[in-house]
Amino acid sequence: MKLCVIAGDGIGQEVVPQAVRVLQQWLPALDCVTADAGWDTFQRTGQALPEATLAAARDCGAVIFGAVSSPAYPVPGYRSPIVQLRRALGCHANLRPTLSLPGCGAREGVDLLLVRENTEDLYIGEEQSDGETATAIKRITRSASRRVAETAFALAAADGRRRVTIVHKANIMPLTDGLFRDCAREVAAAYPQIAVDEMLVDTAALRLAQVPQAFDVILAPNLYGDILSDLAAAFGGGLGVAASLNLGAGIAIAEPVHGSAPDIAGRGIANPVASLLSLAMLLRRHWALPQQAAQLEAAVKHCLAEGLATPDLGGRSSTAAFCDAVLARLR
Ligand code: ATP
């Protein structure tokens, strides 16, 4: 088992090494390779995602990516390394679970999985402007839509989930969102045991805010998935505990959802739960170690239930102390 560790910027430098320490001390067979990416790296080397980092990620096949700061103004030559990395490694699906965790102020009874298309839609970066009119291309392809739908239904079946909700806005964009919806429906036909429904994205946002417990699996194109998953994260205890996994063919990137949080960086108090739970997703989905994944999740939940928490959740624990407690529980 090899893991490429890209801590990135800000609190990524704190939560990722601590979470990886837990995994390494618990599973000594894990071989870790550290690699650079992000804004600091760009300022030092002129590259946000150096070729050596990409090579290390490919070689390991499994990556944990912390967080990167992005400048608030356009900087020539700087492109978001995580978007580049997902694309370069062919990670076509982004999996974002939301679970009611103890001690996090989470809404009761939420257990949903959002599967987001990861490679196209408005994220292809094809924008132009003459100063008066600005246009962005929204690209939806049959191949990417089918691929992410296949991932969503296969995961739903493997996890014993009962329903997939396809989110779109095909009443306004019948060709693009209509294609995404139709591809998902075609794939759904091979899974008669899983119920399928569809929802306009605005209705989905309202329903999610009102009754997040009503959702099981949500399948969404890139932009809607991005927005809805942050909304969903609010019900699971916030950004400090929101985990995700980017899945490709034989390759995966574990990625805590939060950013670099410059307001608390350098103080050793960032919440490592999002990183720990992202590593649990890597154990389950990429390394096919569901038992170890469940053990790690249970240890995190146990610590939270005992009242151990970093300040974002109202507690007084440091990043390192929380990870020590998780490790003690695992041993
Ligand atoms: P970036 O510019 O890199 O996106 P950001 O600070 O704008 O960073 P996030 O880091 O995603 O955005 O989160 C917003 C706020 O939520 C942070 O400023 C921080 O206060 C809080 N936060 C996010 N993640 C964590 C965490 N792991 N632990 C504690 N607080 C967190």
Task: Describe what this molecule looks like in 3D.
- The chain is an alpha/beta fold.
- The protein folds into two domains: 1-92 and 239-331, Isopropylmalate Dehydrogenase; 107-235, Isopropylmalate Dehydrogenase (3-Layer(aba) Sandwich).
- Helices cover 41% and strands 18% of the residues.
- The chain is built from eleven helices and twelve strands.
- It has a ten-stranded mixed β-sheet, with helices on both faces. Strands 6-7 form a two-stranded antiparallel ribbon.
- Strand 11 and strand 12 (252-254) form a beta hairpin.
- The longest helix is centred in the middle third of the chain and has 17 residues, at 142-158.
- The site of adenosine-5'-triphosphate (ATP) has 18 residues, from loops.
Task: Strand order, main sheet: write it out.
Answer: 2-1-3-12-11-4-5-10-8-9
CATH class designation of the largest domain: Alpha Beta
* Uncertain residue segments: none
Number of domains: 2
Q: Which hetero compounds are present in the coordinates?
A: adenosine-5'-triphosphate
Order of helices and strands: EHEHHEHEEEEHEHEHEHEEHHH
- Helical stretch tally: 11
CATH architecture of the largest domain: 3-Layer(aba) Sandwich
**What would you call the structural class?**
alpha/beta
What's the overall average pLDDT, rounded?
96
Shape: globular
Q: State the end-to-end CA separation.
A: 20 Å
User: What is the rounded Rg?
Assistant: 19 Å
Q: Could you describe the largest sheet, including whether it forms a barrel?
A: 10 strands, mixed
The third-level CATH topology of the largest domain is: Isopropylmalate Dehydrogenase
- Which percent bin holds the helix content? 40-55%
Strand content: 15-25%
